[in-house]
Structures are given as C-alpha cells and as structure tokens.
C-alpha cells in the first residue's frame, strides 16, 4: 500500500523540486497526486514500497531539518504582507473566511446581547 511521504500543499515549487531530486538521487520510486481542480484532494508525493517509504521519510526529515536551520524567522511585517498577497490571489477564499468568521462571532455574541436587553 502506498504511503504519503511529503505533502505538497503550500510548498514552494523549488522545495518540491528539491524533494523530488532527493528521492531520485537515492533511487526511490515515487508518484505524485495533485489537489485537483477544487483543491480538496491530497496533493503529495507517495511511495509504494514500505521500506523505500521509510527511507524517503528519513531523507526528507533530514532535508527539512537542514532547511529549518537555514530559515530566517518571519517578522510581523512579513506575515501581514504574505496575508495580503494571499488574500489578493484568493479573493473568494478570503471573503468566505471573513464571512464565516463574522458568522461565528455574531452567533457567539448574540446570546449576551439578547440576554442583556431582555433582563434590562
């Protein structure tokens, strides 16, 4: 049975290419799946052989550890810039999230508002 060794969601293409190259260098047979048109499927790199999957996970973990040691910490300004870029690139997702947030917030606060005005 195939095992997922690396999720591709929100992974930069360069990093995904590096992982593919790493697996190819070590002779690990793999295949990829995409998230699909509606982005609801699992985008990832899979390995069919259990032993190769274990080896692939170990190699990827080492690679990710090395990447993490070279990573630059994100600042609040970088986070805001990234958020705004994502919102511009995905306006429907952003609006849906905003509406959902407002709905949950209003449903959470309405009982307090109604209770205060009924008691007073």
Q: Tell me roughly what share of residues is in helical segments.
A: 55-70%
- N-C termini distance: 64 Å
Major sheet details: 3 strands, antiparallel
User: How many helix segments?
Assistant: 4
**How confident overall, as mean pLDDT?**
94
Q: Cα-atom Rg, whole angstroms?
A: 22 Å
User: What's the overall geometry?
Assistant: elongated
Please count the beta strands (DSSP E, at least 2 residues each).
3
Strand order of the largest sheet: 1-3-2
Strand content: 5-15%
Q: What sequence of helices (H) and strands (E) makes up the elements?
A: EHEEHHH
Structural class: mainly alpha
Low-pLDDT runs:
none
Walk me through what this model shows.
By secondary structure, this protein is mainly α. It is 64% helix and 10% strand. It is built from four helices and three strands; from the N terminus they run E-H-E-E-H-H-H. A three-stranded antiparallel beta sheet has the order 1-3-2. Helix 3 crosses helix 4. The protein starts with a strand and ends with a helix.
Write a compact overview of the structure shown.
The protein is mostly helical and 120 residues long. The chain has helices at 13-25, 50-70, 76-89, 91-119; strands at residues 3-7, 31-33, 44-47.
């Amino acid at each position: 049975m195939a095992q997922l060794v690396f999720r591709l969601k929100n992974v930069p293409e360069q990093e995904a290419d590096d992982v593919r190259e790493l697996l190819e260098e070590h002779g690990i047979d793999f295949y990829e799946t995409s998230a699909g048109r509606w982005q609801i499927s699992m985008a990832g790199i899979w390995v069919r052989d259990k032993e190769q999957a274990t080896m692939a996970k170990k190699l990827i973990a080492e690679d990710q550890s090395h990447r993490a040691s070279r990573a630059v910490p994100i600042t609040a300004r970088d986070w805001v810039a990234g958020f705004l870029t994502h919102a511009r690139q995905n306006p429907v997702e952003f609006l849906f999230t905003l509406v959902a947030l407002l709905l949950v917030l209003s449903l959470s606060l309405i009982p307090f508002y109604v209770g205060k005005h009924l008691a007073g």
